[in-house]
Specification:
Layout (H helix, E strand, L loop, with lengths): L4 E3 L2 E3 L6 E6 L4 E7 L3 H19 L3 H17 L1 H12 L3 H23 L6 E2 L7 E9 L2 E5 L7 H13 L2 E5 L9 H10 L6 E3 L4 H8 L6 E5 L2 H14 L3 E4 L5 E4 L5 H13 L11 E5 H16 L19 H17 L2 E4 L14 E4 L6 H4 L6 E7 L2 H9 L3 E2 L1 E5 L3 H10 L4 E4 L14 E2 L2 E2 L4 H6 L2 E9 L2
Parallel strand pairs: 7-8, 7-10, 8-9, 10-11, 12-13, 12-18, 13-16, 15-16, 18-19
Antiparallel strand pairs: 1-2, 3-4, 5-6, 6-22, 11-21, 14-15, 17-20
Length: 476
């Protein structure tokens, strides 16, 4: 690969100093490489977006909706290639890669529908004082920078790109250097649809490229999904320009299991919450709070379920969980296994890297983990589950909320009134009751506390890329 950057409607070679190596995590080997974009190329991408903005923001809602539906249709036409690439570059099992693609398609379809409703969003505002009229006008915020992570490429970019284009914004997208290939599909689709040059720009790179984009004074907004450490740097860069940001950051989420649950059903929800995408999710429910009355029955079955998961190469084996996506993440998770041994934690299953090619670790369960343990308080981003017991509903709520994060939670109980009550008391942005982590484009996504600022998906995802203008007129 050489022409790996899409700027002003053209594919260009990278001119930066970093070489990006793209790996197959199931083998631990590279299968593509190219040069990163330079700082000058980031400037060119922002300039192209700025140049394209006046025409794009005045296109009709129906025109923008047609482009968004075109993205959805074109993603579907590339289905098998994109699924295979997710499996190869991310290590996702096929069924997960299929859901990722369906999610991206649904996102573009949904925002196409919202785009068509935009004219109705301009409304008159009744005033208490006579002699004046007022109306509200929603406008695109302008040129936006989108920085997306490696754990859900294609999906996270769709969550940002679709509402931004629907609102009438132009964009510069920076994919993760770990998984840069699949977002190239968006540039290919832009070409196929004859999207006006500069409306969508894609620059690939490492920290230098990300810093150049996040600090660029040509942006009107920045939307970032990733780690808290990088998110704080992004926020500092934005603060220098007093620029609005959306930050979707980390989590250390709880799954609360009450003793009236069906044990086998609870095990299914717990396993899904910690092993989907090999636990590499900001929403992973990695803190298991299990009520005393069910703990002795549940933990052995959970141990057996994790031990029986098929872990392997998604391209060559029937699997339930693939490898970690990068060597850096593999080393990080391995360091937490070492910490667990140092802390003397009780490991019921796993707790080790697997002795095979690639970046594999075993699904892991620690029991009776102290609240002061690093494994209980820190985001690991791997299939590592820590369990504690609780006695009462009040204790469960207090321990679930005792975190600097506040992204998601899951509540499992046959008593639906109690489940709803607990859901209302949890300090998070999204709660599931008796469910796997089903995410629907019509809802919202984002967290409280250290898990970020703002919301994605749903109508709020569109409003994140709109500015509000009031027009007041004297009638005299």
């Amino acid at each position: 690969m050489t022409t790996s950057h899409y700027i002003a409607g053209r594919w260009v070679e990278g001119q930066g100093s970093d070489c990006i190596s793209v790996n197959d995590p199931a083998l631990g080997q590279p299968f593509a490489e190219f040069m990163a974009a330079s700082v000058d190329q980031v400037d060119q991408a922002v300039a192209a977006a700025r140049s394209a903005l006046p025409a794009w923001k005045t296109t009709s809602a129906s025109e923008r909706a047609a482009y968004l539906r075109g993205f959805a249709e074109q993603l579907g036409q590339r289905r098998e290639a994109l699924i295979t690439l997710q499996m190869r570059n991310n290590g996702k099992p096929r069924h997960e890669a299929e859901i990722d693609l369906d999610d991206a398609i649904a996102t573009f379809t949904y925002y196409a529908e919202l785009a068509e409703q935009l004219p109705s969003k301009n409304r008159d505002v009744p005033l208490a004082v006579p002699g004046f009229s007022a109306r509200t006008r929603l406008e695109p915020v302008g040129v936006v920078g989108l920085i997306v992570p490696w754990n859900f490429p294609l999906v996270t970019s769709a969550w940002k790109l679709a509402p931004a284009l629907a609102a009438g914004c132009t964009v510069v997208l920076k994919p993760s250097e770990v998984t840069p290939l699949i977002e190239q599909a968006y540039g290919q689709i832009a070409d196929a649809l004859r999207l006006p040059a500069g409306v969508l720009n894609i620059v690939n790179g490492k920290a230098e490229t990300g810093a150049a984009l996040s600090s660029h004074n040509g942006l009107d907004k920045l939307s970032f999904t990733g780690s808290n450490s990088v998110g704080s740097q992004v926020m500092r860069s934005a603060s220098a320009q007093c620029r609005p940001v959306t930050l979707e950051l980390g989590g250390k989420s709880a799954i609360v299991v009450f003793d009236d649950c069906d044990v086998d059903q609870a095990v299914e929800w717990i396993v899904a919450g910690i092993t989907w995408n090999a636990g590499q999710m900001c929403s992973a429910t990695s803190r298991l709070l299990v009520q005393d009355g069910i703990a002795d029955a549940l933990l052995p079955r959970l141990q057996a379920a994790l031990n029986n998961l098929r872990v392997g190469n998604p391209l060559t084996e029937e699997i339930d969980m693939g490898p970690l996506t990068s060597q850096a993440q593999w080393l990080k998770v391995a360091s937490y296994f070492a910490t667990a041994r140092e802390e003397g934690l009780q490991c019921l299953v796993g707790g080790k890297a697997l002795d095979r090619d690639g970046w594999f670790v075993s699904p892991t369960l620690y029991a009776d983990v102290p609240k002061g343990s690093r494994l209980w308080t820190e985001e690991i981003f791997g299939p590592v589950l820590c369990a504690r017991r609780f006695a009462s509903e009040e204790q469960a709520i207090a321990e679930a909320n005792d975190s600097r994060f506040g992204l998601v939670a899951t509540v499992c109980s046959a008593d639906l009134e109690r489940a709803e009550r607990v859901a209302d008391a949890l300090e998070v942005g999204h709660v599931w009751i008796n469910s796997v982590q089903a995410v629907f484009v019509e809802t919202s996504w984002g967290g409280t506390k250290g898990s970020g600022i703002g919301r994605e998906l749903g109508p709020r995802g569109l409003s994140a890329y709109q500015s509000v203008k009031h027009v007041t007129r004297c009638l005299g």
